[in-house]
Specification:
By secondary structure, the chain is of the alpha/beta class. It is 41% helix and 18% strand. It has two domains: 150 residues, Rossmann fold (3-Layer(aba) Sandwich); 158 residues, NAD(P)-binding Rossmann-like Domain (Rossmann fold, 3-Layer(aba) Sandwich), CATH 3.40.50.720.
Length: 320
């Protein structure tokens, strides 16, 4: 069982942490030892389960524990990325934030380097890599495709940031990006963080707890839209951001950020896969990119493409 914040104890051997909600259910707990063997790492993984939107003092307690415990090397943060950053910034806990962490005000990776305690945001890299492997090359070249992201947390901000940054580099941009969320504060924060890079029509919509509101936004999309569940519903909390009456756009590219749990959103999409001509992706490759980016940072590794593909094959073999 993963320790709670109160149950943290000094590591007895080099340790890599997973700061999440239900860490014991993640495939990483069985996969990390296999990856560690392939990468020549002598370290174990321990999960730390925290409540969604936990108290700021708990986030600081976890960060200070990792900072001060010699054998605690760092770790990956999911669900709590924004809350951890907000709880720790300006407190003198972290010695360094990378550019993405500062821009997006989130921490998904905690590491140590030459005595510095560092916070990084890896999602713009990992979400971008997963998205580009899922979409056909040049999908946004004609600038006629839309993107609908349900959820306005750190992963949503990072995905929007990637689309805008890559669009500025290539000229391939969505026609519009629509983001919905159940709290207005997260939508306001998303717009604030993205303000310096916005180069596309960005709409934000407060939808509360009623999935019918997302259904209506879904119905407004044009054929071929990219539809993303970034809410955590279906994994961290029950249900889906859509109702079972929702109708996906014809030819939509549907991406479920989660790979485990009830995955109700994925079930809804698969029910319409044939009739609506959907292309569907779950969060497995995103999971692999997200974890490997953090592992490479924490253990200061440079892995070539062949080595990365070895890690993918190991992961796929364990998934079955």
């Amino acid at each position: 069982m993963a320790p709670t914040v109160e149950g943290l104890r000094p590591a007895e051997r080099p340790t890599f942490y997973f700061i999440g909600v239900t860490t014991g259910q993640s495939a990483i707990m069985k996969l990390f030892p296999r990856w560690a063997e392939r990468l020549g790492l002598s370290a174990e993984i321990i999960g730390i389960d925290m409540k969604i939107h936990d108290r700021p003092e708990n986030y600081r307690r976890v960060a200070e524990f990792l900072k001060n415990d010699p054998l605690s090397l760092g770790g990956l943060v999911t669900t709590h990325k924004i809350d951890l950053y907000q709880a720790c910034r300006g407190r003198g806990i972290f010695d360094f934030f990378d550019d993405y962490a500062t821009r997006l005000e989130e921490i998904s990776c905690i590491s140590k380097l030459e005595g510095r305690f560092e916070g990084h945001a890896k999602d713009p890299i990992s979400s971008g890599a997963a998205l580009e492997s899922f979409l056909p090359r040049g999908y946004f070249a004609a600038k006629d495709k839309e993107v609908f992201i349900m959820g306005a947390g750190g992963s949503s901000v990072s995905t929007c940031f990637f689309l805008m940054k890559r669009g500025a580099e290539t000229g391939h941009l969505p026609r519009r990006i629509v983001v919905s969320n159940r709290s207005q504060a997260r939508l306001d924060n998303l717009k604030k963080l993205l303000a310096p890079v916005i180069n596309v029509d960005l709409e934000t919509h407060w939808v509360g707890e009623d999935p019918a509101n997302n259904d209506r936004l879904l119905a407004s999309l044009s054929p071929g839209a990219v539809v993303i569940n970034a809410t955590g519903k279906g994994k961290d909390t029950p249900g889906s951001p859509l109702s079972d009456q929702a109708v996906f756009p014809e030819g939509a590219m549907v991406w479920e950020f989660n790979y485990r749990g009830e995955l109700d959103f994925l079930r809804q999409a698969r029910r319409q896969e044939g009739s609506r001509g959907l292309t569907i992706e779950d969060g497995w490759l995103y999971f692999i990119h997200g974890w490997t980016q953090v592992i490479f940072q924490v253990f200061h590794l440079t892995v070539e493409e062949e080595g990365f593909q070895d890690l993918v094959r190991i992961a796929d073999s364990m998934r079955g």
